[in-house]
Amino acid sequence: MSKPEKSMQTLRLHTHPQASLRSCFKQTLLSLECLEDNTWMVKTPRGHVHAKKVVVATNAYTRALLPDFWGKITPVKGVVSHLQTESNKTLETNMVHTIPVEIDYISVRDDGSLVVGGGGQTYKTSPNREMMVDNADDSYFPEETRQYFAGYANRNYKSLTDIKFVNDYTWTGCMGFTEDGFPFVGDLTAYGRPNMFISAGFTGHGMPRIFSCSKYLSELIMGKEPATSIPAPFMLSFERMSMQTPYLDSLSEKCGTAPV
Ligand SMILES: Cc1cc2nc3c(=O)[nH]c(=O)nc-3n(C[C@H](O)[C@H](O)[C@H](O)COP(=O)(O)OP(=O)(O)OC[C@H]3O[C@@H](n4cnc5c(N)ncnc54)[C@H](O)[C@@H]3O)c2cc1C
């Protein structure tokens, strides 16, 4: 700890002559191998780590480590833009537009600027079609979606037609979508992976959910009956674990059209 900030100085801890801390953060996990005694060999490019228990929290990328999650957690990329304005005449409330499957949403910031997300319409044509859904390669930037958001406020709101908005930031990332929309949270022992725990598949809603899911999972890992409760649909069940319907197929069935 450094004073007076009381913040953890990781680099100092690492380089301290008497400290022996091996950090494994930001290491790509190559594979997980279950040993005879039901412990795990975690393989990374910097070497192997022997662990009694492992937690898989890799969300959209889970199927790369656990192949049976192919079809259970599908990578779907999200895009959000920030529309800056100097005008104080902007939207008064947050909005959600559904047209009919794709959802666009707007969050109004205190300074009048807008954060706009969604853009599903732009996922229907190439190259977004191939790159944004069922594809975990996050080196791709969806230029078409950025453009879709750039004029969003002027295009869609009469009251904002003449207001100047500047799309100053656009960001994208890989989300993990499940067919039923709920994450997989729990102990994988009963599903052939002893001492492995999972918390993944947040379907674009991780921010309000991850805290209680992590608390619940930590109690499970300690071998306790969890005092923290999570909604039953988030838990593992044989029904959910045998789910074979990839997100896209099921969306297609329900809505008659997939977003790609
Ligand atoms: C543009 C955008 C807007 C969003 N807006 C919202 C919002 O408004 N509200 C909301 O609730 N959620 C939102 N989300 C979703 C939210 O970001 C996710 O729900 C949340 O990040 C999930 O957290 P996570 O820790 O489960 O997964 P992630 O944040 O995806 O973290 C998974 C981590 O696992 C790592 N990883 C994967 N594979 C390996 C491997 N083999 N080895 C080592 N590391 C690995 C990845 O590098 C990553 O750091 C948004 C997402 C995007 C992209």
Automatic annotation (TrEMBL):
InterPro entries: FAD-dep_OxRdtase (IPR006076), FAD/NAD-bd_sf (IPR036188). It comes from the Eukaryota. It holds the Pfam family DAO. Residues 36-220 form the FAD dependent oxidoreductase domain. PANTHER family: FAD DEPENDENT OXIDOREDUCTASE DOMAIN-CONTAINING PROTEIN, SARCOSINE DEHYDROGENASE-RELATED. This is FAD dependent oxidoreductase domain-containing protein.
